[in-house]
Design brief:
The structure holds 2 protein chains of 2 kinds. By secondary structure, chain A is mainly beta. Chain A has no helices and 11 strands. Helices cover 0% and strands 43% of the residues of chain A. In chain A, strands 2, 5, 6, 9, 10 and 11 form a 6-stranded mixed sheet that branches. In chain A, a hairpin with a 6-residue loop joins strand 5 and strand 6. In chain B, 0% of the residues lie in helices and 53% in strands. In chain B, a hairpin with a 2-residue loop joins strand 5 and strand 6. The chains are: A mainly beta, B mainly beta. The interface between A and B is medium-sized, with 18 and 23 residues.
Chain lengths: 107, 113
């Protein structure tokens, strides 16, 4: 069963516009959720995790247990935000990754 | 600190052959996880090793196996290669696994002809 769903494979926004990358999860336990990012020609790296509740590069994500969502948001997109974004769920035994959303910020 | 390293970076094999991939974790990290990344399926968890023991395993056939050495370096082996095994294989290390932050290597690109 798909544990993490990222409904948008591709997302384009203009520079300065708000951006939201959607992530829904399926897990009956207490979820540990993460966002990973992969910039062009770079390795996959952690962007943020929900338990730290910090903002990285202007991105935030709020865990909504009622809607089982962990959407990634940024109020003003920058060109350097163009990358592949992966939502991930850790159940304590393993990570489950979504299929990713490719974000393009148009200048 | 040096990051996670994977060797080789690229491999070309033919069907039926076997292959061994290597991963050196960040110094001090004891958990190593392996993932298969393909355009259609995204990242799929293969297995995790911690202190030389396989702690968790994903839903892959027995042709996929691994091991971890006392210095935490890990190897992954795929026997009887199939065309569908063509993928980017990523390894990630973390302090103790579980929900720790994972640090990824650059991956090994395996092409099966």
């Amino acid at each position: 069963a798909q544990r993490v769903t990222q409904p948008e494979k591709l997302l384009s926004v203009f520079k300065g516009a708000p951006v939201e990358l959607k992530c829904n999860y399926s897990y009956s336990g207490s979820p540990e959720l993460f966002w990973y990012v992969q910039y062009s020609r770079q390795r996959l790296q952690l962007l943020l995790r929900h338990i730290s509740r910090e903002s990285i590069k202007g991105f935030t994500a709020d865990l909504n247990k009622g809607e089982t969502s962990f959407h990634l948001k940024k109020p003003f997109a920058q060109e350097e935000d163009s990358a592949m974004y992966y939502c991930a769920l850790n159940t304590g035994n393993q990570f489950y990754f979504g299929t990713g959303t490719s974000l393009t910020v148009i200048p | 600190k040096a990051g996670v390293t994977q060797t080789p970076r690229y491999l070309i094999k033919t069907r039926g052959q076997q292959v061994t991939l290597s991963c050196s974790p960040i110094s001090g990290h004891r958990s190593v996880s392996w993932y298969q990344q393909t355009p259609g399926q995204g990242l799929q968890f293969l297995f995790e090793y911690f202190s030389e023991t396989q702690r968790n395993k994903g839903n892959f056939p027995g042709r996929f196996s691994g091991r971890q050495f006392s210095n935490s370096r890990s190897e992954m082996n795929v026997s009887t290669l199939e065309l569908g095994d063509s993928a980017l294989y990523l390894c990630a290390s973390s302090w103790a696994g579980r929900t720790d932050t994972q640090y990824f290597g650059p991956g090994t690109r395996l092409t099966v002809l």
